[in-house]
């Protein structure tokens, strides 16, 4: 029972971080009807912004985290939208998707050139101690990772549903033409979406890097798993991305512990195939009709 | 007439330039480094390369080998065995006298056949046992194989830790499998029960289920046989989940890079290492200082491997008195280089007829964020 609890908690903890990255896929899809294949690198990069803050600018950790968040929002939110999305979007979704693939390579190789190919130590945000709960020993870091991630998701959901700006963003995502007629500044709402995506990616980066270590190639795994989580949960629903992330995190850990470690990497792909065959819109997603 | 004169002059100049180039080519000896400058093996490969390059600079400054300057071109395998194979061929085509690298066993096993076919001596940093078990007369280690290193820990498990149940966490590549198999055989020989046998993938980032399995197994100690980055992630996860059993490794676990990456989680980890940069040996201390001065950072044992590899080529070549690949390989078999006479070796080193290496080794522990040598194991 102790082992099961720890494995479950570790899975939920990692899965909740996947969910943050997966929500980014959902947001960009809703705002620009495109898939950002550089999302994994968006999660990889902010950890290096923090390291620059610590090692080059000699900031304390808390200040370096704020610095990393601000730089990530500017570079991965504002500049990404202005320099890549806006010029490419009028040419259709496919060129933009290809542009994000190129951006993924650029960010990965740029980080490698700039910071080196080796993994870099990354400070833990939470104490690496354990808690004894009803005979089970659980990690405080896992627990706090889960709490922080879920708090962010809940806060985002409340923002989107309970505030005027959030509702305007939803209206823009659902029907930009009608939203504009109703007086919504759709361009600004789309910009907000990209900024929020960058902030989510940065927060995921801060939480996952103490475990993964900061490395230029981290985005490969993270991007793929988050993409699959978004599809499994439902690409057009935030709650779907959350469910997909948690499901993959937990199943990955349970499989590795109780079934096989050798094939754990294949599990998300198997899950993806099953979901696409059984429920193409994802577990919590809704069907979308398109006219051709 | 003028045109003919110009043509003649041009031809003469070209001939002169060609002679110059030929003379230049005769003045150098090519020892390329084919190693892991990026990918999962970047830590090991970069240090191996930098150690080798340091030796090249020293040897060149002192007049080279038999009067020829060493040229060391770098070929990055990206830690990909197939890429490494192509690059070894490329290095051979460029006129390599000997090859330094690769470090990752999975790559060496694939590319050593290319060097063997071409008759080019290869000095590898790999430690998988089967590398020297393939009757390849052109392969030479720069550190001993796992079949020599892992048994050095058996006495520690049995007589010092007094364990009867043990777990093993290993990386499922050629390096890990080699060490794992030797470990299982050793534990069987001394009657220690392996209660958890946990393989992991190269580049694995999440070790939560691995640690959880080991905790559940009731193992009294854990043998950790992973590459550097995975070592660090495993140590962090072990600390996170409160794993109390002693963590014991071979070669990598107490390396400085692992300590830097794992931080406090590395504290108390124990390992047998063939080479230790922290060894209280004046020649190694001097090497570590030179490396730090040259690159502005510390190295791990791989830096020493690269360094002594180049010096071994120099000393053996000077013994045969000519640049003859076959004679070099032949000379290396059964050779002992005494550190008193050959200071570039840092420690007295011997090679047997398979290219396997022997020299004294060290027991190390992580104390206060540093690798500390706590004992010496005689050459076996």
Walk me through the structure.
The complex is a heterodimer of chains A (292) and B (380). Chain A is mainly alpha-helical and 292 residues long. Chain A is 74% helix and 3% strand. Chain A is built from eleven helices and two strands, in the order ααααββααααααα. In chain A, a hairpin with a 2-residue loop joins strand 1 (130-133) and strand 2 (136-139). In chain A, helix 2 (39-55) runs parallel beside helix 4, helix 2 (39-55) crosses helix 8 (186-212) and helix 3 (61-88) crosses helix 8 (186-212). Chain A is globular, with a radius of gyration of 19 Å. The mean pLDDT of chain A is 90. Chain B has 380 residues and is α/β, with parallel strands linked by helices. Chain B is built from 13 helices and 17 strands. Chain B starts with a helix and ends with a strand. The A-B interface holds A 2-3, 6-7, 10-11, 14, 112, 116-121, 123-124, 128-130, 137, 139, 141-142, 210-213, 215, 217-218, 221, 252-254, 256-257, 261-262, 264-265 and B 37-39, 42-43, 46, 172, 198-201, 203, 205-206, 208-210, 212-213, 215-216, 229, 232-233, 236-237, 239-242, 257, 260-265.
List the helices and strands and how they pair.
The complex is a heterodimer of chains A (292) and B (380).
Chain A: H1 2-32, H2 39-55, H3 61-88, H4 93-115, E1 130-133, E2 136-139, H5 140-162, H6 164-174, H7 176-181, H8 186-212, H9 218-233, H10 238-258, H11 267-278
Antiparallel strand pairs in A: 1-2
Chain B: H1 2-26, E1 28-30, E2 33-35, H2 42-61, E3 69-71, E4 74-76, H3 81-93, E5 99-100, H4 105-118, E6 122-124, E7 139-141, H5 146-149, H6 151-160, E8 165-171, H7 174-190, E9 193-200, H8 208-217, E10 221-225, H9 228-240, E11 247-250, H10 256-262, E12 270-273, H11 282-295, H12 301-320, H13 325-332, E13 336-337, E14 349-351, E15 357-358, E16 361-367, E17 370-377
Parallel strand pairs in B: 1-3, 2-4, 5-6, 6-7, 8-9, 8-10, 10-11, 11-12
Antiparallel strand pairs in B: 12-16, 13-14, 14-15, 16-17
